[in-house]
Design a protein that fits this description.
Layout lengths: L9 H12 L6 H10 L5 H19 L4 H15 L7 H9 L3 H12 L3 H9 L7 H12 L6 H24 L4 E3 H6 L8 E9 L2 E9 L5 H19 L2 E5 L17 E4 L8 E3 L6
Parallel strand pairs: 3-4, 4-5
Antiparallel strand pairs: 1-2, 2-3, 2-6
Helix pairs in contact: 4-6, 5-6, 6-7, 6-8
Length: 282
């Protein structure tokens, strides 16, 4: 349950990353084996951290080139010629140490040199002329819960779910707010998920805005959010609160911006820690 999530100790995080780096594939089997070792972690925390590390590994190790695409296609043709074989792309992705959706994308770049067309085929496999290949690409994408369009939809859905959860919590507390759509209609280009109409205090820290992050926060992604989003929110609206619903690395509490520009939480604060203020027009 998200409500039981607490900041993660650095030694646990480092051990997790070390074990992850030993993996030779990112299949569901490999994920489940690692999950057994870290069964003490909340499922959502494990899933978010594992997915985040897969994304980074793909960015660091994957190289897009015609020669790689050609080699992948040769491997595919060899295995696909055996009609007894199924789920060829997922099998080959495991042997190459990349995600099935990424292997499929590289494969299609050999079939369709036009990058735009290859991207369209990943999103809509019915556009692929070779129906056997189309079926294999479809299977590869649907069996990949870490990378590609299917994984993107999952992440977007989870993000929306937790934004709605936060919105509901605010309404239950009778805390009025302006959401992203309202703020953008007022001309703001970068906006938090919720700007409070009247500030509140959480554990005596004044909150003007709240940002919902349905993921695990570590130093790398937090640093990115600080640069691209959070500093802008602080400059425009003052101090706020960031909720990493699936937990965050405990060392983030030691960074200079935390407890100055904003506070971090892993769930919506309990009622007893919140102080409400009334709007007092002059």
């Amino acid at each position: 349950m998200a409500d039981s999530v607490k900041p993660m100790k650095l030694e646990v995080y480092n051990a997790f990353v070390e074990d992850f780096n030993k993996l030779t594939s990112y299949s569901r089997t490999a994920e489940n084996e690692m999950k057994k070792k870290y069964k003490h972690l909340p499922a959502a925390t494990f899933g978010s951290l594992f997915s985040m590390l897969v994304q980074r590994a793909m960015k660091q190790s994957y190289r897009k080139s015609p020669s790689i695409s050609s080699r992948y296609y040769e491997l595919y043709e060899t295995l696909a010629s055996d009609k007894q074989k199924g789920n060829v792309i997922s099998h080959l992705a495991d042997t190459q140490g990349i995600c099935p959706a990424l292997f499929a994308r590289s494969l299609l770049q050999n079939v369709y040199p036009d990058t735009a067309m290859a991207k369209k085929c990943i999103k809509d496999t019915t556009l692929i002329d070779d129906k056997d290949l189309a079926y294999e690409v479809f299977l590869g994408i649907m069996n990949d819960n870490q990378y590609g369009p299917y994984a993107d939809v999952i992440k977007q859905s989870i993000g929306l779910e937790y934004e709605l959860k936060l919105e509901n919590e605010l309404k239950l507390m009778n805390i009025t707010f302006s959401d992203e759509n309202i703020l953008r209609s007022r001309g703001y280009d970068k906006t938090p998920d919720f700007k409070l109409d009247v500030p509140i205090a959480v554990d005596d820290f004044i909150i003007n805005w709240i940002e919902s992050k349905a993921l695990f926060g570590d130093e790398e992604n937090h640093s990115g959010y600080l640069k691209e989003q959070l500093t802008c929110y602080w400059n425009r609206f003052g101090p706020g609160m960031v909720i990493y619903w699936f937990g965050y690395l405990e060392t983030l509490e030691l960074t200079p911006e935390v407890n100055n520009m904003f506070i971090l939480r892993a769930n919506f604060p309990p009622k007893e820690s919140i102080t409400l203020y009334k709007y007092d027009p002059i």
